[in-house]
Design a protein that fits this description.
The structure is a homodimer of 381-residue chains.
Chain A (H helix, E strand, L loop, with lengths): L4 E2 L9 H7 L9 H18 L4 E5 L3 H12 L5 E6 L2 H12 L3 E6 L8 H10 L5 E5 L1 E2 L4 E2 L2 H9 L4 E5 L18 E5 L11 E5 L1 H7 L11 H8 L10 H17 L1 H22 L12 E5 L6 H12 L1 E2 L1 E2 L8 E5 L6 H17 L8 H12 L4
Parallel strand pairs in A: 1-12, 3-4, 3-5, 5-8, 8-9
Antiparallel strand pairs in A: 2-10, 6-7, 9-10, 11-14, 13-14
Helix pairs in contact in A: 1-9, 2-9, 3-4, 5-6, 10-12, 10-13, 11-12, 12-13
């Protein structure tokens, strides 16, 4: 018997008491209690995002929320920069192109990041760009982008700054207002510790000014309409209100721990995980790794899909592989949301066992011990 | 102590074992099990809709699903007929106009229906219409439309037939294929006995032919992309997969009871409810009432909002009022999904008590007895 351990970078495990919250009877969605819940979750999300601005809940996935932001930021015929370091950066580029925006890709090689200086020269080359979009944590490769430096650069221009914080909000340092972020989107199924079904967009005043210049072709994902409703603690359409009720519980936990402590906890998990996998002899894939997951290269001559299969079948450990062209080439261990140090330790121990069985030379326990040492010796400063 | 009784036409109560299903641990959404669930729920929904065609799950509300269908059916600059008998008919009209479609409203007075002959003359007057959209059960007024007759009329033309079945699928007779429906949309929070968060669109071959003539301005609600994925038992974006897992449970219940038995059960509840409220002295609002809810006029000189407030505060019975211009003028009692005869009886009994307390002459128990008699004497044929 092995317990099922979900260490994928979304969906992530949901705490047991939140699951029970999801099992509570359904109430109506247009009541004083429902309005109170909306007011509280908006306040809680403001705290997580580091913003005083509007936060709008949408019933959709993170992609729906990013679409809402992208089409609100730039009209058809407009121009934008998309910083692309993997699958999700690619996706936002594609959305703009779907909507007739001239989107210029600023591309990083797989496992690499787009640097602030790459953005700086792109902004010089395209002074007429109306928006810059970046993925904070590019979940497909495990890299993180330097939002603080990028936000400074974009703030000096008329362009708005859009951030996909789907697998970074509630994981790593994120300061929407201080970092001059104008549109920030995230989903429910990562560090907010909920099942998928809800997503959120926060919009700055500069963001709203851009949004008011045009009316994007959407009804369901109309952020201006949703903003007018949420300011009255309401939504334009029936929301996934049992998820909103459960989100309140997640946000209570986040407040109780403190967002800065949560960032430190994730950094510590990341450092421990990386020490462990590197000691086993695995190479990190990300040049600048994000705190929410660790991506490693599959060793030469080993079948990455087979490693994943054995981890799940023999040990109940569910990791993620690579997507699209990275399929079979990388493994991704998530340590975000409701995943703790001993879950990470279990995944390293299972990985050691599977790799040994597949003929890869591993000293059993070496990765585990290295992770423990890194965890014990971690200093946040 | 009174139990909370939710008799609103969405969200509706969720069965206790489905709630527990929602409390089960989260698993990954790209697994053999997840594909199996998708395959099963698509089959189950086909059964509910009466179709052999594609059924596409979307993570959004019913409005999102209708938007997906409407923009797929008619391109910008195209022309469509919107049959409007209330708030939801209005909404679909508005969506088309948002997307630059010349949408002609065929309007019924509040509480009335658009008749097949009104549609027939509109089709004659607008032979170039590319689509006809109708709400099967217009939840805002409680009327039902004659889809069978309308489908016949539309099938003789090149136009596609779009149906909002949000509060009718799993409630009243619905035969997508036999009735020549080309796009059919519904949500999770009505007769599918789930919380809100999922919606579904089914598309006929004629529907796909119309869809293939253009590419609508959407990425998240792109039905063609979603169809290619669902045919492989997959979704393009992270779906609300714990709701999909719970939907499997709802669909098992529906199959076990039999969809035609479910239609009869709802007709019986509707007949009982109507006998009850009419015996109390309340007047039905809908000229052709749908089986999923009963709308009644608020008696002259009584405050409709106060009736609702007292029902909930004093007796735990949650009914819906009117929306927009009908606010305070009607009451709506839902009897769809996981609401049984004794819930309906409780609502009639509570209504009798509240009306009496508010000075309206009621013989206590008269409505209840009438509902029981109608229930006992019900014959389906």
């Amino acid at each position: 018997m092995f317990k099922y351990r979900l260490l994928t970078p979304g969906p992530t495990p949901v705490p047991e008491d939140t699951l029970l919250e999801l099992a509570r009877p359904v109430s109506h969605h247009r009541t004083a209690e429902a309005r109170q819940i909306l007011a509280e979750v908006v306040e809680g999300l403001r705290y997580v995002f580091g913003t005083r601005h509007d936060v709008i809940p949408l019933t959709c996935s993170g992609t729906g929320a990013m679409e809402a932001a992208l089409i609100q930021a730039v009209p058809r015929g407009g121009k934008a920069l998309a910083l692309v370091a993997g699958k999700f950066g690619e996706r936002w580029l594609q959305i703009w192109r779907t909507f007739g925006v001239e989107a210029v890709a600023v591309q990083a090689a797989p496992g690499q990041v787009v640097t602030p200086s790459m953005l700086e020269s792109a902004l010089r080359q395209h002074p007429d760009t109306q928006a810059v979009c970046v993925v904070h944590c590019e979940t497909s490769t495990g890299v993180k982008h330097d939002l603080r430096a990028m936000g400074e650069l974009v703030a000096r221009t008329d362009a708005v700054f859009l951030v996909d914080a789907v697998s970074s909000a509630g994981v790593m340092e994120l300061r929407m207002d201080d970092w001059h972020i104008d549109f920030l989107a995230t989903g429910s199924q990562k560090a907010l510790m909920l099942p998928p079904g809800l997503a959120f967009v926060a919009v700055s005043e500069k963001g709203w000014r851009a949004a008011h210049r045009h009316q994007p072709p959407t009804f369901y994902l109309d952020l201006k309409k949703a903003r007018d409703k949420i300011r009255e603690h309401d939504t334009p359409f029936t929301p996934a209100h049992t998820l909103l009720r459960a989100l309140r519980k997640s946000l209570e936990k986040i407040r109780a721990e403190g967002i800065e402590n949560i960032w430190i906890r994730h950094a510590r998990l990341a450092q421990a995980c990386r020490a462990g996998v590197q000691t086993i002899g695995l190479e990190l894939f990300a040049s600048v790794p994000a705190e929410g997951l660790t991506a490693v290269r599959v060793p030469a001559n080993l079948d990455g899909q087979e490693i994943l299969r054995r981890l799940e079948r023999d040990y109940g450990v569910k990791l993620a592989g690579g997507q699209d062209q990275l399929k079979g080439k990388i493994l991704r261990i998530a340590h975000m949301g409701y995943i703790d140090f001993f879950d990470v330790l279990a995944s390293i121990a299972a990985l050691e066992l599977v790799l040994q069985q597949m003929g890869f030379a591993v000293a059993l326990g070496s990765g585990v011990a290295a992770a423990q040492r890194a965890f014990a010796e971690f200093r946040s400063d």
